[in-house]
Specification:
The chain is α/β, with parallel strands linked by helices and about 475 residues long. It is built from 15 helices and 26 strands. It has an 11-stranded mixed β-sheet with strand order 11-10-9-12-8-13-14-15-16-17-18, with helices on both faces. It has a 6-stranded mixed β-sheet with strand order 19-20-24-21-22-23, with helices on both faces. A hairpin with a 2-residue loop joins strand 10 and strand 11. It is globular and about 80 Å long.
Length: about 475
């Protein structure tokens, strides 16, 4: 319980209409969740304006309203806080509501199209290995030490996020490693979060269903770095053509990592196979069970961030060599007849290309690669032909199938993927709408020693069809099918 006066004490500018001493027992951005004594923040969303629900929130007992436009009439006993930007103000209010506990944690945000989950999870694992109690906020799961909290979004809503950070502080967490999505930046879901560091992985074609243009997508990522404080540091992938763009206006200390050119932190793959790879990272070498050039970049980002957080601890390379794989990211399963299956979350053209390229660099010419891949429904349609083109061009056989069709017709999605297949590769593709049957078909196609890539869903344990989430796990389907042919 806090007084409104306490909650708005650190706001740059706010006009209060009503009693500033009114008591607030909770914060809400969802009008349906408002109860007596709550502060309701009337946020303007992409499809609805929270201001239209103020009257209903007052009827539900809201004691305070945070808004950008005052209602036509004001009720007695209710405090109205008028601000220029509700989401930005709410970030400060959240910090104050939770006694600014998040400021006691070293919070590192990672953004980019691909690699966010891997970098955040590997940092969590590394600092846990070093003896720290850590928090993790990711697409796969949220964690406070060993406690797992289910994840519904890459980045939670602003109130839930600040509540989670307060829980981490109460539990004694010294660090929190979190994914920062472009949606979260654009919607100000991270407002008020006191970041100590920001990491940029890469930016490629994705989420244009939301951002509309690639330029808007870049600006959303860049905004995260623009708003980092001067006492934070920013680490960017110098090899990405937009990597240095991220640092243009940041006040934070700037660092770079790269594989193809000089940088503050550089990485080179000395050797690799399906058991792992030998990396040369600046002046040190170590073996990692992670595989692929994209993971070399991820590990370089992790090393750079950890080096800066620990002031160059000499034990880091040894500790990093003990890091395992991330759920649903290039996970290798061994089947009968020396068949190798790889499950990966690759759901963008760049991610799929990276995974296929890694497999092709390792596999022998006599070994066939069979790729099972789909594209999600009600998402960016422009990437579908490119996904079909890549899968068919870089595999011996490609099975186009469903991912999470959501509310779309899965057959239509497959036809859009097929449209990108080049004429000379038509003979390589098969279209099977049912993902389970597609995976089974791939296993039956595979000869001794062949490789199967099942891409797109990775860690997910469901398939979203017509708004219903059905239990579905690529790894389980593969394992069950392997048992049938043993």
């Amino acid at each position: 319980m806090k007084s409104l006066k306490q909650l708005i004490a650190t706001l740059d500018s706010a006009q209060v209409f009503g009693q500033v001493e009114v008591e607030v027992n909770g914060l809400q951005i969802d009008s349906r969740s408002v109860s007596s004594g709550n502060l309701y923040a009337a946020m303007k969303g992409t499809t609805v304006d929270g201001h239209t629900f103020i009257e209903g929130c007052l009827n539900a007992g809201a004691s305070a309203i945070l808004c950008e436009v005052l209602p036509a009439s004001l009720r007695d006993g209710v405090a109205y806080v008028l601000v220029d930007h509700v989401a930005k103000a709410l970030g400060e209010i959240c910090l104050n509501f939770y006694d600014r506990k998040a400021e006691n944690i070293t919070i590192v945000g990672t953004t980019g199209t691909n690699g966010k989950t891997s970098v955040s999870t590997l940092l969590f694992d590394l600092f846990t290995l070093r003896g720290n109690l850590c928090g993790l906020i990711s697409t796969v799961e949220n964690r406070i030490g060993t406690d797992i909290i289910p994840s519904t979004h890459t980045t939670p809503n602003i109130v839930a996020l600040h509540g989670l950070l307060a829980q981490m502080a109460d539990a004694g967490c010294s660090h929190c490693f979190m994914e920062v999505s472009s949606h979260a930046v654009d919607q100000r879901r991270i407002a008020g979060v006191p970041f100590a560091a920001g990491v940029f992985t890469n930016i490629t074609h994705d989420h244009l269903d939301y951002h509309k243009t690639f330029d808007n997508y870049i600006k959303a990522k860049k905004q995260f770095f623009d708003e980092l404080p001067a006492d934070a540091f920013a680490v960017t992938n110098k090899d990405d053509r937009n990597g240095m763009v991220m640092l243009q206006n940041t006040k934070a200390m700037r660092y770079t990592y790269a594989m193809k050119q000089p940088a503050d932190f550089t990485v080179r793959v000395s050797e690799h196979d399906f058991t792992g790879m030998q990396l040369q990272l600046n002046q040190t070498e170590f073996w990692t069970p992670l595989i692929g050039g994209f993971n070399a970049y991820n590990l370089c980002a992790v090393y750079a961030t950890a080096f800066l957080l620990t002031e160059g601890d000499a034990e880091l390379p040894i500790q990093m060599s003990a890091l395992g794989k991330v759920n649903g990211r290039f996970e290798v399963l061994r089947g009968p007849n020396r068949i190798t299956a790889i499950v990966d979350y690759a759901h963008t053209p760049d991610a799929l290309k990276n995974v296929l390229q890694t497999i092709n660099e390792i596999r022998k010419n006599s070994v066939n690669l069979i790729t099972v891949v789909g594209c999600g429904g009600n998402r960016d349609q422009a990437k579908r032909p490119e996904m079909g083109k890549l899968a068919s061009a870089m595999s011996n056989r490609a099975i186009l199938t469903s991912d999470n069709p959501r509310l779309e017709d899965p057959q239509s999605i497959l036809e859009q993927m097929e449209a990108g297949v080049e004429p000379q590769n038509y003979k390589r593709i098969v279209k099977i709408v049912d993902r389970k049957e597609a995976i089974k078909t791939a296993v039956l196609m595979a000869q001794s020693g062949d490789i199967i890539l099942v891409a797109g869903k990775g860690h997910e344990t469901y398939q979203d069809i017509q708004g219903v989430k059905h239990p579905f796990d690529d790894k389980i389907i593969l394992s069950e099918t392997f048992k049938l042919i043993e």
